[in-house]
Amino acid sequence: MKRIILALSVLSMFGCNNRLPSVKTGFEGKPLPEFNLLLNDSTTYINTANIPAGKPVVLFYFSPECPYCRAQMDGIIKDMTTLKDIRFYIFTSWPFPEMKAFYKHFQLNKYPNISVGVDYADFFAGHFKATGVPYMAIYQKDKKLNKAFLGNVNSKQIIEVAQN
């Protein structure tokens, strides 16, 4: 009985650190992959190869209907003052109108460090073998992958991974 209580105590301590374990992708240390996004204005395309180096980059793959993705977006917005030096590319492979509704709901036009779009070729999910959303790949300022996460990531962890 003592061993069970001890094991549960140890497990609960690890569970209370509010840190999500990273997903091993095999791309750690590799450069940002090249793919296209159709941005929320419906006319502008951006190729990730054209994202400038010098600031950390977060690729946030979401589903507009996912409550966990919405919670992740709420957290990012709530902590935007501490995340302002990170470029966020927030995208989905869902149809354009659903992405646009997400963009409007969260009023993402207010944030100059956030770009929102559609991965119309569904490159990201296949490349990273993303088994769900929210999925976040965090690149350092040299545009090399540090870590990827499946699930909600707290802002403190985003900053630590982006700057580490």
Characterization of this structure:
The structure is a single chain. This protein is of the alpha/beta class and 164 residues long. The protein has a single domain (21-163), classed as Glutaredoxin. The chain has 6 helices and 7 strands. The chain has helices at residues 2-15, 67-78, 80-83, 96-105, 123-128, 155-163; strands at 36-39, 45-47, 57-61, 87-92, 114-118, 135-139, 145-150. The chain has a 7-stranded mixed sheet with strand order 2-1-5-4-3-6-7. The longest helix has 14 residues, at 2-15. The model is unreliable at 1-17 (pLDDT under 50).
The CATH top-level class label: Alpha Beta
Main β-sheet description: 7 strands, mixed
What is the terminal separation in angstroms? 41 Å
Which runs of at least 5 residues are low in confidence (pLDDT < 50)? 1-17
What is the helix fraction of residues, given as a range? Answer: 25-40%
Total beta strand runs:
7
What is the radius of gyration?
17 Å
Structural class based on helices, strands and sheet pairing: alpha/beta
Q: Which outline best applies? A: globular
**Which fold name corresponds to the CATH topology?**
Glutaredoxin
